[in-house]
Amino acid sequence: MHKVVVMQTQDRSAGVKGSLKALGLNPVKGKEVLIKPNFNTADIAPGSTHNDTLAALIDEIWEMGASDISLGERSFPETKAVMTQKGVLSLLEQKQVRLLDFDQLADRDWVKCKPEGTLWKDGFRVARPILEAECLVATCCLKTHQFGGVFTMALKLAVGVVPTVRHGYDYMSELHQSNFQQELIADINAAFAPDIVVLDGIDAFVDQGPATGKRAKGNLFLASSDRVAIDATGVAMLKHLGSNEAIMKPAIFAQRQLARAAELGLGAKSAADIELVAADEASTTLRDALEAILKTA
Known about the structure:
Blueprint: E1 2-8, H1 12-23, E2 32-36, H2 51-63, E3 68-73, H3 79-86, H4 88-94, E4 98-101, E5 110-113, E6 124-127, H5 128-131, E7 135-145, E8 150-151, E9 165-166, E10 169-170, H6 171-177, H7 181-188, E11 196-208, E12 213-217, E13 220-224, H8 227-241, H9 245-248, H10 256-263, E14 274-278, H11 284-296
Helix pairs in contact: 1-2, 7-10, 8-11
């Protein structure tokens, strides 16, 4: 079974700490940890990772015994500009976290990946720090994606480890112009695996997205070592909140990102593989509601 912790909270610091405690895993102790956030743009949460979530996650990783922490990202249009606009650079300095700006990587540090059966025309490239991370922690948001992705959570986070243009090829044009965008998103994930995923669903986009959209209060945190299970549970939460037709109509594992991820063996293959665990007594009602949606949708 693939465990997903469900925590109902309006407090981001409590959400990070409580969901990780209930998950009961510590892959970071003594390790050099790389955090991959959702900083594609500097839009306010859930358009991007909330600074309070990032700060709480960093504090918790230090508390769990990490030997070193870095944050790595490739943003749009420029990573440093996005980080500056969000006020992240000063936060990282204060928390003693190194920034790995993937825009600044040399060409040799964008590693060619071509998993067997990939739908990318000639594979894709991944930032070397992601592939070589001793411990990878991902943190994502809860939202829909109006430009072909349908939803953007843990699996979609992987797009930020692929370059826009490198070695004379425009990877983002291939992705965004493809009829198989959702499958290509899943394929990127075949190249690496996070050790822990934390989803901040206190605020959600239930339509439009990923930068701006129709907002709803989810008051939710999820934590898991399985990004497929996190995304399936996140889709269940969007259904619970009431979302657009692309979310509400299909069965959860009929979503093409999830179907492809299941086909590739990246995590849970169906709702039956997922165990939802309430982080505390206050979270049991929401856990039960999401479990019912997972089983029937």
